[in-house]
Structure formats: C-alpha cells, structure tokens
Specification:
Blueprint (H helix, E strand, L loop, with lengths): L10 H20 L13 H10 L1 H26 L6 H15 L1 H10 L4 H27 L9 H23 L5 H17 L6
Length: 203
C-alpha cells in the first residue's frame, strides 16, 4: 500500500497541533510590549510619555491578536466539518501554521515602522497568505471528499465566501497605504472588529 494513501488522516491531531502553534504565536505577540526602563523614568509625567510612546506597539498587539483569533476560528470551523484528513490536507494546514508562526515578526516590523509602506505591505502579505492557504485547504478538502457527508452546500459556500470577502476588504485597506499607512491600519481594525464581533451578519 502506498504510504501517502494512509498518512495524515487524523484531523484531531491536526487541530491539536494548530491550537499549540496559535497559542504560542499569540503569546509571543505580548513579548514585544515591554515596560519602560526604570533608569529613564523619574516622575509620573515621564512614565506617561513613555506609555504613550508604546501606543503603536499596543495597537499592533491588539490588531494582530484579533487577526489570529479570527483565523483560528476559521481554521477550526473547517476542521470541525471534516470526516477525516489526508496527507495533502495536513501539509496545507502545516503551511498555514507556518504563516501563523511568522505573524509575531510581521507584527513587530509593523509596530516599529508604522509609517513605512513596506512594513504595511509585509504585514498585509502575511494576512494574504493566511487567507490563501485556508481557502486552498477547504478547496482541497471538498475536492478529495474529506468533508463530512452531512455538511450542506450552504456551509461550504459560506466558508469560501467569508475568506474571499475578508481578503478583499484587507486588500482595499492595503491599497490605502498609497495615501497613508495609518488609513490602512484603520481599515484593518474595522475589518477585524466586524469579523470578530459579527457586526455584519451576512459576512
């Protein structure tokens, strides 16, 4: 029997690996938030200014934590509707987790160079590849008959539509960096709040 025909079939193990990678990535995000150095602070005013200076990093922490939360929910939604996995699907999700694991780096880059378009594009590219691999994973699962037979077509269409809509909105936000990178970040925040809180139910 061909090894590839029976490798990587346990979707539960894939979910467990994903939970671990997500939890580590989300924890690493907060390590970029450091209290101001004691030697540089001599009074309340200096501490207050130092905390304000941490604003961009705090904002990026919140934004990216929401992003990873959204993608975790998206991946778990897919895994919950699988009857089983296979080698191809497992490797697609491993690639997806690679992009999850480098999210703290792109976040740190954006936090340090908030006004730089290159940093914004790098951060957006990270989001693009997260969405792309998640979309490909569902297409693969449907094509290879890995989805539970009881899953209605509406759910499959909804999963694909949600990824396409969110990535389109992120792309619109990224284009705004031509005008100002801060506008792009503002759109990213609105998009994330929408998908995290379900502000627009149809999405």
């Amino acid at each position: 029997m061909n090894y590839d025909s029976f490798a990587g079939q346990n979707a539960a193990r894939l979910a467990a690996l994903s939970d671990g990678v997500f939890s580590i990535a989300m924890t690493l995000l907060v390590l970029d938030l450091r209290a101001p150095a004691v030697e540089a602070i001599h009074n309340d005013a200096e501490l207050w200014r130092a905390l304000i200076a941490l604003g961009p990093r705090l904002m990026m922490y919140i934004v990216t934590f929401l992003t990873l939360g959204i993608f975790w929910v998206g991946q778990q939604t897919q895994l919950n509707h699988l009857a089983r996995a296979n080698r191809s699907l497992s490797w697609i999700h491993i690639v997806f987790l690679f992009f999850v694991s480098i999210t703290p780096f792109s976040t740190n880059l954006m936090a340090q160079y908030t006004s730089f378009r290159v940093a914004l594009i790098a951060y957006w590219a990270n989001i693009v590849f997260l969405g792309l691999t998640l979309y490909i994973s569902w297409i693969c699962a449907v094509r290879e008959g890995l989805v539970d037979s009881g899953v209605p077509l509406e759910i499959s269409d909804g999963i694909k539509r949600r990824i396409v809509v969110s990535q389109s909105l992120y792309a619109f936000g990224a284009l705004l960096c031509i005008v100002n990178p801060y506008w792009s970040l503002a759109v990213f925040v609105v998009v994330q709040l929408n998908f995290a809180l379900g502000l627009i139910r149809k999405s």
